[in-house]
Amino acid sequence: MSVNINPKDMIIAPGSNQKSAIYVREQKGKYQRIRRGIAMFLMTLFVILPWIEIGGFPAILLDASNQQWHIFGNTLYPQDFPIVAGIFMVAAFALFFITTWLGRVWCGFLCPQTHWLFMFFWLEEKIEGSRNQRMKLDKQKMNGEKFIKKSLKHASWVLVAFLTATTFVSYFMPPIELYSGIVDGSLGIQPWFWVSFFALCTWGNAGFLKEKMCLHMCPYARFQSAMFDKDTLLVGYDTERGENRGRRRRKDDHKEMGLGDCVDCNLCVDVCPTGIDIRNGLQYECINCGACVDACDQTMSQFNYPKGLISFTSEHELKGGKTHLFRPKIIGYAVICFVVFAAMTGYWFTRSTVELTVLRDRNVLYRVNNDDFIENSYQIKLLNKEPTARSFSVQAKGIDGIESSLNKSFSIDSGEMSSLVITLTADPVNLPRRVLPVELIIRDMESGEVVISHESRFYSE
Ligand code: SF4
Ligand code: SF4
């Protein structure tokens, strides 16, 4: 096997046969089954997750108006930013790891753009017919048949786009509220704006921009080749085996004719969603969807040739060597991923279940009350991050006999932030200095445990 390509060249390799309009032929086969299976699984998850209730909230609800993210029964607040940053970091390094190992597997098998693109292709094929029929339809002048087919296609695309948009928006507002609002006409302008916006984006992306989104707009497509090495899995054509390409009959002895295994059926080009010819070498337009692998395997079977003229392979394998799984870059990404994940998990399990902010009364440093005791006031903001209401008390420590005005139980609902004024009172005989440290202690009244504390100052004279 041989091929003269450096995967890093893919970023600059020109597209070989970009056409103005791409008519994709439907292809069946192993990789298309895998992609469809993954698509069904991910789309089912996408649709059902907002409908599954955990802890009184949808499994995933990104409630921006209340600044709370409900994720599988846990609630994240703006104060939990390290967790969100950790999630993004783990996702990024997991993507680097997968890309170095399996190439553009994200693009071909996981990216929503690809799944929606293939879903729109499927609808187009069912309504307008096969590749040849669609090409013929587009060439003919507008008539009743063409009008009906085009209208039906766009109606089906718009319907899918609308359902996609409502599902997406139901991650930001409870789905019952969203759908009942749509049905009874009570949905506000803002949710309608977002539903229309995302529906338009879906229709535009999967129906019109199609492969142009991957080729010209997706930043990931541009920088991922920097992660490739000679062991990265890519879709490649075995030039040594395939060339010279040429047409022949099944019974012909192609070796005698001086031909390689490529029968030049052009199927690998016809099924390619980005319209490239993989026989021209690796190109950045290739999203590794595997359609050309299935198409070529089908042709090879028809001619009784071994499969794998186009295959998922690596540059090392194409040169007759072996693909190495364990290499420093891959191990590095896996280690970083694991370390960030462990740090995030540690942070999650040790994070406080309340958030406390304490501000001293800025107008008056201290007051002397009717009993000649010294009083200091503070404003405290207490956020209850637990999924249930809780009762707290605030006590003070650090000065003998100091009293807190909030030493009795008060309740805060789940997710609520209470703003309270607390006054600490101390006997002047216990205040040897003008400024003394004092600790405010928040206690959970049910468990009796101290949940958080804060050090401040107590002023006198
Ligand atoms: S060249 Fe093959 S794997 Fe790459 S995008 Fe086209 S059909 Fe998919
Ligand atoms: S599908 Fe295979 S045999 Fe047909 S043109 Fe492509 S590489 Fe050649």
Defining key terms:
about 450 residues; alpha+beta; Immunoglobulin-like; 3 domains; 5-stranded antiparallel beta sheet; 4-stranded antiparallel beta sheet; about 40% helix; about 20% strand; elongated; binds iron/sulfur cluster
Provide a brief overview of the structure.
The chain is α+β, with helices and mostly antiparallel strands and 461 residues long. Helices cover 41% and strands 19% of the residues.
Secondary structure elements and pairings:
Blueprint: H1 30-48, E1 53-54, E2 57-58, E3 60-63, E4 68-71, E5 74-76, H2 81-102, H3 105-110, H4 112-128, H5 131-139, H6 144-169, H7 175-184, H8 189-209, H9 211-217, H10 219-223, E6 234-237, H11 239-242, H12 267-270, H13 291-302, E7 310-313, H14 315-318, H15 328-350, E8 354-360, E9 367-368, E10 374-384, E11 390-397, E12 403-404, E13 410-412, E14 417-426, E15 435-444, E16 450-459
Bound molecules: iron/sulfur cluster (2 copies).
